[in-house]
Amino acid sequence: MLTREQQKTILAEVSRAPSVHNVQPARWRFDDDSVTLLQDRCRRLPVADPTGRDVEASLGASFEGMRLALSRLGLGLTEPSHIADDGNGEFRAVCTATLVRAASVDPLAEQVSRRRSWRGAFVPVNETVLVALENTMRVRDDARLVFGRNDITRVAQLNDDCSWEFMRDPSFHAELYEWMRLSPADPRWYVDGLNAECLAMSAVERRAASLLFRPSMFRLLKTIGVARAIVAEAPRVRTAAAAIVFHRPCGERAFKSGRAFYRLWLEITAAGFVACPMSSIADSETGSAEVRRRWGVPEGRRVVNVLRVGKAPAEPPKSPRLHASELLIESSVLDLEPVK
Q1: Is there a single domain that holds both residue 91 and residue 18?
Q2: C-alpha distances in angstroms, 266 versus 46, 57, 92, 225, 274?
Q3: In a designed cystine with 62, which of 4, 6, 26, 261 is the match (CB 3.0 to 4.6 A)?
Q4: Residue 105: which residues within 8 A CB-CB, separation 6 or more?
């Protein structure tokens, strides 16, 4: 049985797993010989993620984070047993897994604290620096490395086109704005969501965004035709050393894709790079179709995400996280029924 302090130490590391809009939906319960992953039902994105697929992938990443953290203690987890959703209560039980002994520490565990998302401009690198990244991608069958100025330029334009496809929807923008933390005075600046520091905004940009990103003001900016220019990222994306197309089998559970996505990002970190997801490309039917066609995604595979990758000018800030104690569910809150 893990002590309470061990549980909190583990959860502080598990919390570093990526989640869509940094909503952090995962909660955990520890029993004598097992752990249960739960979802906080309040932490979802009804507009941007109506089917819950992105949240489910985020939960998968958290499960993989638990595996990584436990490996430091010589422990492992069996494959998860998924649990039927009863549709009730504050929490949804997602899966349970049994604690087992592990032979060794997972080699990616040490990358968890080093992993960063960087939305700013990257510094120039020469192509020889990409060798480590190429070697990493070569052994994966679910990632396609894209580099060369013409291809990166096209990725940058595609990202802007697909982002605007969603951002021009007032409901999508309003939901995103709810998760943006544009001032350090915001009580949730250090807790969750997308804060201005992690969005690589300067102090001037932060103050401007506080005004211009308000839904009422953004609607006005759309009317006069300047809103798209304000949210464009192409100049920053064009500085990337490479892009990575992450694809998985079409019928795969999003939970499993999320586990693989987290490991991919940690491998990028181990190769010495930072990354930033461009999820809108994968979420857009036209964007995903072009990626499949242009960069040869095999038949039967789904484009899950596209990441821009490079070197940051300095170590990027850590994104905010909930305190470990908030991730711990103390007692049984659900009757757990394994999926048939």
Answers
A1: yes
A2: 28, 16, 28, 40, 9
A3: 26
A4: 71, 72, 74
Is residue 135 domain-resident?
Answer: yes
Residues above pLDDT 70, as percent of the chain: 97
pTM for the full predicted model: 0.95
Q: Is 242 helix (H, G, I), strand (E, B) or coil?
A: strand
Do 95 and 136 share a domain, yes or no? no
CA distance 88 to 152: 45
- Assigned token pair, 223: 């009317």
Q: pLDDT digits over 32-82, tens only?
A: 899 999 999 999 999 999 999 999 999 999 999 999 999 999 999 999 999
Check: CB of residue 288 under 8 Å from CB of residue 282. yes
Q: Are residues 136 and 22 in the same domain?
A: no
72 shares a domain with 135: no
Same domain? For 88 and 148 the reply is: no
What are the φ/ψ torsions at residue 234 (nearest 5 degrees)? -55, -45
Say which CATH number the domain at 49 has: 3.40.109.10
Mean pLDDT (whole number) for 230-247? 97
Are 333 and 89 contacting, i.e. CB atoms less than 8 angstroms apart? yes
**pLDDT tens-digit profile of 197-216?**
999 999 999 999 999 999 99
Residue 336 lies in a domain: no
Q: What 8-state DSSP symbol labels residue 297?
A: P
User: Any residues with CB less than 8 A from the CB of 152 and at least 6 apart, and which?
Assistant: 146, 237, 238, 240, 242, 243
pLDDT digits (tens, 9 = 90+) for 264-314: 999 999 999 999 999 999 999 999 999 999 999 999 999 999 999 999 999
> Where in the sequence is the domain holding 32, given as residue range(s)?
4-113+322-327
The domain tally of the chain equals 2
Does 338 reside within a domain?
A: no
- Sorted by sequence, the CB contacts under 8 Å of residue 3 that are 6+ apart come out as none
Q: How many residues does the chain have?
A: 340
Please indicate, yes or no, whether residues 302 and 187 belong to a single structural domain of this protein: yes
Q: Of the candidates 35, 31, 148, 136, which has an alpha carbon nearest to the alpha carbon of residue 81? A: 35
Q: Is residue 340 part of a domain?
A: no
pLDDT at residue 339 in the model: 43
